[in-house]
């Protein structure tokens, strides 16, 4: 009996020793299981949606444009014309100066003839006293017909003053096609206007077309000018 009691005592002690670690263990639920810790996690299907960056305003030239144009630019683009802010802005960049005089000339042209549907940026060489010749070349810009390189020539008769290498901006009104530019445009009497180093004249052609050259610097030639300009798709030395 004594031996049996001792054996039971040893077995009981062993069972107590094995049960102690089991009672100390705590079973944690996995974080993804029901009742687990979901803090800091996005439930499936409710992830944050991607927000694209705000679009850049489009200026029409292929580059983002920060300048805001007035005079109903959307309507002008549909009609193929240019607003006064667009022409003044292009003029400031082309002539390399920001001046109120240029703005005044453009405003005068817009008051008299409205919005142009084309314009030319180029350079003109001339220089004569009493009589002379003009030769120029530049790029024609239009919304409806694209752009192309053009040339112009013409006699200049009358009281003139000027020189060579004048930058010239020509506003074009009522242009039905780019081919319609290639004709003679006689000067319109009494259209000459000069302000602050900039000069403006007007030329009339067929199909009610009107050209308004704006010149700057030493190339300004104004006065009793009764000449004309002839536009061609290729360069030529014949002004007639």
From TrEMBL:
Annotated region described as Disordered, given as residue ranges: 34-80
Keyword Signal found: yes
Keyword Transferase appears in the UniProt entry: no
Signal peptide, first to last residue: 1-24
Domain of life: Bacteria
Biased composition (Low complexity): 39-50, 68-80
UniProt keyword terms in alphabetical order: Signal
Protein name, UniProt field: DUF1134 domain-containing protein
Source lineage: Bacteria, Pseudomonadati, Pseudomonadota, Alphaproteobacteria, Rhodobacterales
